[in-house]
Every structure is written in structure tokens, then in C-alpha cells.
């Protein structure tokens, strides 16, 4: 995993799929929920929708779903996730970067997830203390792929986005970081930066 070059202002990490491999757990939970609506999640569908904001995510399966129904299903899914949080695996090759630079560079978690899930996820991985700021979907009006979460993180950290590095695992997350002017984005799936 590439480490930051001299002059880097801050390190910004996505959570789900970047710091902690939660996606399999989330997929299992949503598979159970959507099965009640006669829908089976395929690999292709999950790849396209896994990182989409809640309402369009639910409406991709239940086109006439209201925001209230999406919220209800999300509350059910989050409660189930907290029961099985121990199944989420820390991604050590990314976490080692955060550990190596803890106390040396400002660092933030920048996620499209909700705080009530993200904090327990980071706690379960034993890494919450590594980060100066945790920005979630609860902190902004528009979540990823909008740039809002990254813009908020660099504002709170008081750093130049062009001198920051974002570690991401999805096109939606990379689009968000690009939109906020983040200078370097590392796709942890490829273990390369661009």
C-alpha cells in the first residue's frame, strides 16, 4: 500500500471496504431483507448499488419505496449488522498506513455510512483512536458520490485538499474525492494511486 509522500497535508480513509471489510456482512443482511420482496442480489447488482445512498439503493429493488420505508428497512439492517459486527474483517494493509502515520499527519474517516454503524465498526476493529475526524453521511446533505463528505473533512482538518490523499474502494467514493479536489486518490482494490 503506497505511503504518503513528503508535503502530504492529511490522509482520508473511506471505512466500508477500505478500512474494514464490511461489504460481505452488509450484502448478507440486505439479501435477507430484499428476499421478502422477491429480489435476489447478484454480484453485478451489488457492484453497481452497494455504495449508493439509502433511498436510491432501496428504490433500485422497490421502485415505489418511500423514504420512510427505506429508513425502516435501514433501521432493521443496522440492528442486524450490530448483532454480527464481529464478522467484519479489518483490512490490515490499509490500517497499517493509518497506524504508521498516527500522530504525524491529520487523518479522517470519510464515509457514506451512518455514524451509528461506523463508530461501532471502527471500535470493533480497534482503530477509532487513530483518526482526528470522522465524517459520515449524517454530517452532510448529500453523501457520496457528491463531494460533501470530503469537503467537510478537509474543512474541519483545515487542510488543502490538493495536498491530501484519499484511500477508497469504489468508483462512487473516488468520484466524491475527485469532486472535492483531493490531490491523490488510491484505489485500494488495485493498490495503485492516480
Range of helix content: 40-55%
Percentage of residues in DSSP E strands: 5-15%
Count structural domains: 2
SSE order? EEHHHHEHEHEHEHEE
Mean pLDDT: 93
Compute the number of strand runs: 8
Structural class: alpha/beta
Strand line-up of the largest beta sheet: 5-4-1-6-7-8
Give the number of helices.
8
CATH class of the largest domain: Alpha Beta
Uncertain stretches of 5 or more adjacent residues: none
What CATH architecture of the largest domain do you see?
Answer: 3-Layer(aba) Sandwich
* CATH topology-level name of the largest domain: Rossmann fold
Q: Describe the sheet with the most strands.
A: 6 strands, mixed
Shape, principal axes of CA atoms: globular
How far apart lie the N and C ends? 13 Å
Name given to the CATH homologous superfamily of the largest domain: HAD superfamily/HAD-like
Task: Describe the structure in your own words.
This protein has about 190 residues and is an alpha/beta fold. Helix 1 packs across helix 4. It contains eight helices and eight strands, in the order E-E-H-H-H-H-E-H-E-H-E-H-E-H-E-E. A hairpin with a 4-residue loop joins strand 7 (about 185) and strand 8 (about 190-194).
